[in-house]
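Risk register update: the risk that structure generation would not scale has been downgraded. Supporting records follow, first protein first.
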Amino acid sequence: MTQTQPPRLEPDPNTAHQVRLSGCWTLATALQMGDTLRGIPDGTLQLDARGITQLDSAGVLQLLRFAHRAGLADDAILYRQAHQALVSTIEEVVDDRPRPKRDFGVLAALDRLGRSVHATAQNIVMLVNFLGENLVKAARLLRQPRRFRLTAAVHHMEQVGLDAVPLVALLSYLVGAVIAFLGSTILSDFGAEIYVVELVSIAFLREFAVLLTAIVLAGRTASAFTAQIGAMKAGEEIDAIQTLGLDPIDLLVLPRVAALLLMLPLLTFVAMLAGLAGGVTVGAFDLDIPPQMYLARMHETIEVRHMLVGLSKAPVFAVIIALIGCLEGLKVEGTAQSVGERTTSSVVQTISLVITLDALAALWFMHMGW
């Protein structure tokens, strides 16, 4: 059995800037290879490795790394012909890329921001397309009214409207009381507690009643629509509906849209009454304003246009909540995880869009003098 010869280094007598390498340059002699390479004198410009008897990938990597550290040229190492194939393979896969710069998270944050903006734009386009499809199908109902599912619409009206009355009324009553109490705390410094009547009335008639109702239904109804339709999509029931020749828009979406269009304005009116009742309660028990005086002041100062402004936004919010809830349900991919993700997405989208549109509408009505 041939004895392994250790790596050796000797100067080339013919050239002053060249050294000769010999011996066994394999993984078994890796430590000795490092010592040998450290013994190469400074100023060496070429390595003659044709005297190496055994060479593997570990030896080639050691030589290439030494040449890189010493700044030698690409052809500064001379190999024997039998080793050329191995050297060429190692040179192709060796990782000589520069070390990546330290990432402080800025690029990742910008990447997430860009993806979020792109996804939001796509969702807006899909929502507009879905709105157009529903308008076309709703117009078809005028010519073919038998397509409308009255029983399903009444069922959803009960779930969306009647079942939500206690929650909407309670929240509106408490918020109205809180607004009246906070307003009285500030106005009492000026001796103007009576203006709490205008504060609560205008705030609830124009903004808070419809906004609170829309937010409650966005969390309660939009999520329910998404979960119901998403479960049907995951169970391939929507595919079965299409196989039977039925339209999922007529069967699942339009009854829900109609139910919200009818019930959200009614719930908004209930919220208005509950919010005003909260203001009356605080005025009677905390501000020494009798209910008769409170109602008389409200009758003298509040105009009907404030209530009409609030009610005018209810149908818009109803359409947004119903369409987003149904659209996210139709996007479910067939797994329970997808149902949860789309339910969360529908709640976030509806609440965000409702608040944004309410702010824009408030600015528009203010500039119009309404």
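Supporting record for the second protein:
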Amino acid sequence: MTINVALAGAGAFGIKHLDAMSKIDDVRVVSVVGRTLEPTQEVAAKYGIGHVTTDLAESLALDEVDAVVLATPTQMHAAQSIACLDAGKHVEVEIPLCDNLADGRRVVEAQQRTGLVAMCGHTRRFNPSHQWVNRRVQANEFAIQQMDVQTYFFRRTNTNALGNARSWTDHLLWHHAAHTVDLFAYQVGSPIVDAHAMQGPIHPELGIAMDMSIQLRAASGAICTLSLSFNNDGPFGTFFRYIGDTGTYIARYDDLVDGREEPIDVSDVDVSTNGIELQDREFFSAIREGREPNSSVNDVLPCYEILDRLERQLAK
């Protein structure tokens, strides 16, 4: 069956999802929602999408829409996810699920009430590099002792991944740390039992901390150290070093090297080497198979419980 999709958010990550969905059989984007009409129409024309709107409710009212992919600002994620579920649409919302724990719990409640597929885009679970490590862990060939993670950007102004002005403010804790907090527990297969955070000065205009340090410990004893910065003038992105009992591996998005920077071939890990595409494939497979997806909203909620703990620490 063909799954008809509405994409909400035609910015940098919305484009990534459009490119990814174009590679998936029997998936058709029939509606696109944007903040302003003209640039959204340009995106729709480029991808051959017939319906364009600035109002998500208009897309949700379309009977032909089966599912929605949300690549909208963080502050909208929870409310829009619930709106999609209440409208009878499956939903995949980009990370983070929410920017406060209460909203995250409301999304989980909406999914349980409707029984629809609701998934959060915790892309690191799907990157071939991290999948490769996970398979070694599952096969008892590698035990993670420590993850050392750097999440670095140079964003002293409110711009997105394309360098364009944002209508909202990004957040190191609820957005970028969510990737690592979730991935750490997922990769070691053990819940986080200790979590500590420190942050640097609050930016006078953006109102957020530009630098942050987080330490985690899992019940298994494995530890994670995460450094985050919007002040780093250099290569941007998130870089994961896995230190274990039988090796060291460094993951940079979909690429993987060992501790001596020797490349590791991950091309045969999955049907694609694009983490966003693999994430989207899981969403549509779960819809077709009537099952809970990897990184369902229920599955990732413990990550947001940890973020809530950290936020309360930082507020003291």
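The CA atoms of residues 4 and 28 lie 5 Å apart. On this basis the risk owner (M.S.) recommends closing the item.
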